[in-house]
Design goal:
This protein has 545 residues and is an alpha/beta fold. The chain contains 19 helices and 15 strands. Among the domains are: 1-127 and 443-510, Rossmann fold, CATH 3.40.50.300; 182-330, no CATH class; 511-544, no CATH class. The radius of gyration is 41 Å and the shape is elongated. The two termini are 25 Å apart. The model has no long low-confidence stretch (mean pLDDT 88).
Length: 545
């Protein structure tokens, strides 16, 4: 249940805080005051997408917050499994900035719009005029029927099995239509042989590239070693000159220490010479740089032709192998594929028939409930019928479902979309909403001006129906009709005012006297004594049911 709604810097609202209660809460106000903005705010807090246009002019960000009771053990467990701290209340907060940044939180923890949408569909249902047009669509009718019949889980199974069946059918059709000439078979075989002969290994390309780098480094070093050796070993090179210097200095008694230093230097360089020989002799010549580069060229050529990676190359190899096998063993492969298709089709048909049977089993009960609610809404002659036709295999089963109605005696049944005037359609949709939503475990039902096109006794009946729903669910209703608003357990009024260059919208909970004045204004345009007296009589009539 929604306990509280707060909006700040939101379109026309500077700040508003509304405490909701159980029963039927009605929000009224003159056209353009901003009644539906509050329902939109609840929608945004339920995960609906929005833009920065909702930020009040001159402000940096808008803040929306909704507090809900959280008593359902299943819901608490779901939240805890997703690492949310859960107490007695669920607080949804959303901020939207002027630079298009939006953040949504559950109990102060940042989450995603998708998660919030999934969560809130279990708690709140918002029904607007747009939902009326959605319910006209056959696919929507099928979906709500499955919700009523509790066949959602079975429908998911049918969807999974359908995709298996579709894969098998596509594979079989491909086999049947697949024909290759001898030249084409040779081409496919050559491709396969080319991949097999290359025998590319996982990560081989990376290994080869590393080896090439190592080889290139070694070759550069070897050139340096050879040049160094030439400098040391050549005639009249460094070693020869050092040795000659040593011999020359040795002849002088005064230079013996320096001669010994030259001698030590000579032997150090001679050791370096030996090390350079060892480095040159130790160079790996088992695989040439040309061979490594040729292998890389081969592998990259295969990758370029077959997908760009080792994985795609192996997928192509498997594909070619299967294609060759299908050609060489066509009859056997066809038989196996046909058997797989028949098995998948049988499994799908069994589940689809089961789904169809469960759907049809609730037709009579559903039709009766809808017509009962229609009578309460002064559609005494309305007849409601669910029509089913068998269609080709599909993800949602084998049923084409359509809602048909007859609004008057002797009138033929026609599809829902062709059936009624605006006022009749509003009542029909309310009847359907009552039936379908009470099956879903929803705690809060919101009606956003669904009473369009009705007035007088019909509006009174719609208000009475919503009040009846409010005995079991929290109901929020936006209306412009006094006959509906009179049924409110709690009455709120939205007002718009202007100050200089700014427009402000506010909302207040009305006491009994203020509610009568608002009802009188809604009915007569202004609260004259006669209009207030009529409002009192309307409230008295409501209080007596």
């Amino acid at each position: 249940m929604i306990e509280q709604l707060m909006v700040k810097n939101y379109i026309l609202f500077d700040h508003a805080l509304i405490d909701f209660s159980t029963g039927m809460s009605v929000i009224t106000g003159e056209t353009g005051a901003g009644k539906s903005l509050l329902i939109d705010a609840i929608g945004y807090l339920c995960g609906k997408r929005c833009t920065s246009n909702i930020v009040r002019k001159g402000k940096d960000k808008a803040t929306l917050q909704m507090v809900l009771s959280c008593e359902d053990p299943t819901l608490r467990q779901y939240l805890e499994e997703n690492d949310f701290d859960v107490e007695d209340e669920l607080i949804i907060t959303r901020t939207i900035t002027t630079n298009q940044k939006s953040t949504i939180r559950i109990n102060q923890q940042v989450t995603t719009l998708g998660f919030v949408r999934h969560l809130m569909t279990q708690l709140i249902d918002i029904h607007s005029q747009m939902d009326t047009y959605q319910l006209i669509k056959p696919e929507t009718q099928l979906a709500v029927l499955d919700g009523y019949a509790h066949t959602d889980a079975l429908r998911k199974q049918v969807s999974v099995v359908y995709h298996t069946y579709k894969e098998q059918k596509d594979a079989y059709d491909s086999l049947v239509n697949e024909t290759l000439s001898d030249d084409e078979l040779d081409f496919v075989t050559n491709q396969y042989n080319q991949i097999c002969e290359a025998d590319v290994q996982p990560e081989e390309l990376d290994t080869l590239l590393a080896q090439i780098k190592q080889k290139e480094d070694a070759l550069r070093n070897q050139e340096m070693y050879m040049e160094s050796l030439r400098s040391l070993e050549e005639e009249q090179g460094i070693l020869d000159r050092l040795y000659a210097l040593f011999k020359s200095l040795q002849k002088s008694d005064a230079m013996q220490e320096q001669a010994d230093q030259i001698r030590d230097m000579y032997y150090q360089l001679d050791d370096i010479k030996e090390t350079l020989h060892q480095q040159i002799e130790g160079t790996d010549d088992s695989v040439s740089l040309d061979d490594l580069q040729a292998r890389v060229y081969t592998i990259r050529g295969l990758y370029q032709r077959y997908g760009g990676s080792y994985e795609s190359l192996m997928e192509k190899k498997t594909e070619l192998e299967q294609q060759i096998d299908r050609i060489l063993h066509r009859e056997t492969v066809l038989e196996q594929s046909k058997a797989n298709l028949e098995k998948a089709e049988k499994e799908y048909a069994t589940l689809a028939q089961k789904l169809s049977k469960q759907r049809k089993a609730c037709f009579a009960e559903l039709e009766s409930k809808v017509m009962s609610h229609c009578k309460d809404l002064m559609l005494e002659h309305c007849q409601f019928q669910i029509k089913q036709e068998t269609k080709t295999y599909a993800e949602d089963g084998i049923d084409t479902i359509a809602f048909y109605v007859s609004m008057n005696p002797g009138q033929p049944f026609v599809p829902l979309k062709d059936s009624a005037s605006g006022g009749e359609l509003s009542r029909l949709m309310l009847a359907l909403k009552v039936v379908f939503q009470t099956q879903k475990g929803i705690e809060t039902i919101i009606f956003d001006e669904i009473d369009t096109g009705v007035s007088g006794r019909v509006a009174y009946a719609m208000g009475q129906k919503m009040h009846t729903i409010a005995k079991s669910y929290q109901v929020l209703c936006i209306t412009h009709l006094a006959s509906v608003a009179a049924w409110a357990d709690t009455h709120y009024c939205v007002r718009k005012s202007s100050q200089k260059d700014s427009t402000f919208t506010s909302i207040e909970e009305l006491d009994e006297e203020s509610s009568l004045i608002e009802l009188a204004t809604m009915s007569a345009g202004k609260p004259t004594p006669a209009a207030i007296q009529a409002a009192k009589e309307l409230k008295e009539r409501v209080s007596h049911g």
